[in-house]
Amino acid sequence: MVSLFQILLLLASSTGRCVAGPPKEIYVKAGEMVVLQCQRASHRFDHAPVIWTSESELPMDLSNMSPAEQRQKGLLFFDTSLFILTASVNHQGNYSCSQRNVSEKLWFRLTVYTTLTRELEDRTWYPMTCYTQESCTLSCSEVNIPPSNNPYFTSSDIIWHKEGKSAQKVKSYFSSVEDTDSGVYTCTRPYLFDGQIYNMSFTLELDVQPSQRSKHAVISYPRANETIYVDVGSPAVIKCEAVVYSDLSSLFWMSGNTFVEKNDSFPVFCNYTRESLTEGVKNTVNLVFKEVTEDDLSNNYTCKMQSFSRSIVITITLAKKVQGSHLPVALCPVVIMAIMAATVSVYVKFKIELILFLRNTLGCHRKTSDGKTYDVFLMCYKSDKVTGLKACDTKWLENVLEEHFGYKLCLFDRDVQPGKAASEALLDCIEQSQSVVLVPSPLAENLETGLLSAIHAALVERKTSLVVIKPGNVKEDKWEPAPEAFKLLEKMGHCVTWEGLSSLPPSSAFWKKLRYHFPAACTKNKALPLEALP
Q1: In angstroms, rounded to a whole number, what is the distance separating the alpha carbons of residues 303 and 311?
Q2: Angle at the Cα of 253 (from 248 to 259), degrees rounded to 5?
Q3: pTM reported for the whole predicted model
Q4: 211 closest CA partner among 174, 245, 246, 177
Q5: By C-alpha distance, which of 378, 381, 392, 394 is closest to 445?
Q6: How many Å apart are CA 336 and CA 340, to the nearest integer?
Q7: d(CA 192, CA 153)
Q8: Is residue 276 classed as helix, strand or coil in its secondary structure?
Q9: What does the mean pLDDT of the chain come to?
Q10: Reduced to 3 states, what is the DSSP secondary structure of residue 484?
Q11: Could you give the CA distance from residue 403 to residue 451 in angstroms, rounded to a whole number?
């Protein structure tokens, strides 16, 4: 089944635009304020204006509306945000935002409701759990509220109501929450603008559970009906532990119906220890055998915890310790070889995933003294026989590598100083980069044979890794890059196939193979909205 994101991407490609992801669903109660926030595509476009469009039957560019038209429709624009001051069914529908000179669009689907259905409850309510006899503070959602740096709105204190007590305000802090405090709460955020109050409300469902901290003593060791293996003729010590919360609790051992005494002159006796904890006291009573006899094996021993409100009884039995059989020494090498073979097999099969996991877990370990300025040089070239990647796909390739995975890219049209010869600039980029990626593109310039030979020599001399991206829609017999110098580049590099839509998600096989041939990125990931990909 084709996902909604893929449908949007296909539609956008027909109009020359890329889609950042499926529409973001936003629900608002009629009469309240709603804020749509557009995220900038990249820090390079911080000063580019945001264009808002109402994607109704007749798409309308909202950003070109006059202030009078904005006020008539109850709209307000600030930075990257679109404010709908009093939402109504007339505002319901699809919206999109983008930046000038940037092809990606961010989509929103706004639903304005007057009646709260069970389906809307599941979509708009957010849960919260607290525990009895503990403090609890209700938290009002901060999703899609006006940005803190806006100069138009003044916020007031949050107002809380509980379902069934709509006319009565309730507190948001409980010093010791109880079961009766469970229920549905609504928080209202009032904002003052131009002498009028506009509200945003959110609904929280509080579930009060029994306290996770037990107030009753529990025997943690041994387990009920456990068999303890001992050596006959040797001493043995069996401990019983419990954390108690009252001085009236006691812990002791019994042999049958008889208390085991503390007198260490007896062949079987008890000794006690106490340890104060943050909550409660850990009591330990040891059942000590000076020398285990056959008669001891026939007795039942019971550890008992007795308190004012409850008692716990744990009974154990003693049994002879059986000497375990040892693996014949001759089989040890066989077992070791089998383990080594299995390890190698798993490594070969999951080598890429393992390497990427270690990089993500351990972080960057590249030496900073390597003298390289960039992680990757993304070099586009034109092939007469291959169509190459679309401009939209090439842009997505740059954004994901730089904004999501944190690689520092060298881009010819961005990082090369104007006035420099193309051949010299290309070789400088190779000199300053850890890896080079060749991307076929119909918009790029043809690389001359002499320049290709110079690039090959530079890569060999500097031992720079090379990755060649191959379009997946090209048949093998047509993938015959020319001239001969390019064939040398392809042989020394690693080929990674771009499969179109299936290669878009950062979790796809394409990105794993590509990153495997790169060094570890030494910069932190940035907030590129990729979680919406299928």
Answers
A1: 11
A2: 90
A3: 0.40
A4: 177
A5: 381
A6: 6
A7: 5
A8: strand
A9: 79
A10: helix
A11: 31
| Dist. CA 516–CA 111, nearest whole Å | 43
Phi, psi for residue 478 in degrees, rounded to 5: -95, -15
Q: Which residues contact 326 (CB under 8 A, 6 or more apart)?
A: none
Most confident of 67-71, 442-446, 473-477, 530-534: 67-71
Here the tokens at position 161 are: 């109501």
Q: Which two tokens stand for residue 328?
A: 């014949």
> Environment class of residue 475 by beta-carbon count within 10 Å: exposed (0-12), middle (13-18) or buried (19+)?
exposed
Q: List pLDDT tens digits, range 167-211.
A: 678 888 998 888 889 999 999 999 999 889 999 999 999 999 876
- 289: enclosing H helix or E strand: strand 281-289
Confidence at 1, pLDDT banded by 50, 70, 90: very low
Per-residue 3-state assignment (H helix, E strand, C coil) for 223-245: CCCEEEEECCCCCEEEEEEEEEC
Q: Name the 3-class secondary structure at 511.
A: helix
Residue whose tokens read 């001992």: 230
pLDDT of residue 267: 92
60-99 pLDDT tens trace: 788 788 888 888 888 888 888 899 999 999 899 999 888 7
Q: State how far the Cα of 209 lies from the Cα of 179, in Å rounded to an integer.
A: 7
Report the alpha-carbon distance of residue 512 to residue 500 in Å, rounded.
15
Terminal C-alpha separation, the chain: 12
List Cα–Cα distances, 97 to 11, 186, 393, 406, 433, in angstroms: 16, 30, 20, 25, 35
In terms of pLDDT, which residue wins out, 214 or 101? 101
| pLDDT tens per residue, range 307-343 | 765 678 888 888 888 765 555 666 778 888 888 888 7
Residue 41 contacts residue 526 (beta carbons within 8 Å): no
Closest CA to 529 of 407, 400, 406, 409: 400
Percentage of the chain lying above the pLDDT 70 cut: 79
Residue with tokens 């403090």: 135
